[in-house]
Amino acid sequence: MTEADMQHTDHADLVAAAAMQLAAQRGWRSLSLGDIATEAGVSLAELSRCYASRPEILDGFERMIDRRMLAGAAAGDIDDKARDRLFDIIMERFDALLPYRDGVRRVTRELPFDPPTGLVLALALPRSVSWMFAGARIAVNGPWMPVKLATLGAVYLSVFRVWLNDENQDLSKTMAALDRGLDRTKSLFGGDLGRTRPVGPIPTDGPAAVTEPEPEPKPKARRSAKAKPLSDEADVG
Q: Which terminus has fewer CB within 10 Å in the chain: N or C?
């Protein structure tokens, strides 16, 4: 990637992060591109080099989160079970989303009234799920690939609803819901979540630009202190 490409990605991530922060304050549908440019501290001309619409900015936000998720993937965990590696990579994604949760909540609430946004998120989900498998070093191919992608996507969306309202500092409700979801998925496929890939660098479509202070890092040894299953399903409203 050239220096110009990296700078473009940095600006794109800056705009995407600013849009989600502004959505937390004003809502998503009411935002104009001018509002977002002002919040990001860039001109409209600069914004237009990255995005042409709010739906494109939302897609850029999803790509930014994918990159940050992959940047946090532990390449040395190839000896762990595939299910545990999936657990870790999905929690990395929730960690990456955490600074923007208030904005994500507003976007989620407005989805029934904003079909273009819903379409963007529907198209982004399979891409993100594919990166989850890649980050967990699991090769998903063959005739079962669409089913596995759809199944993990359904697990992610279910846990995402719990995460939206999980105010515990350690995201214990989210981890417990993810434990249950992955256990059900493992049972569905008879314990085979896919063939493990050879160890190697995780590809990304650009650097994970940091445009604001990151939250305090959470302990990486999630599996050693696995959350206890909840007695009742979390109320996600």
A: C
- Measure the CA–CA gap between 114 and 6, rounded to whole angstroms: 32
The letter for the amino acid at 3 is E
CA nearest 110: which of 183, 226, 26, 32?
26
SS3 138: strand
**pTM for the structure as a whole:** 0.79
Parts of the chain with a pLDDT under 50 = 76, 197-221, 223-237
Model confidence over 131-148: pLDDT tens digits? 999 999 988 888 888 888
Q: What's the full length of the chain, in residues?
A: 237
Extents of the domains making up the chain = 3-200+208-225
Record: fold of 3-200+208-225: Tetracycline Repressor; domain 2 (1.10.357)
How far does CA 77 lie from the centroid of its chain? 20
Q: Are 18 and 36 in contact (CB under 8 A)?
A: yes
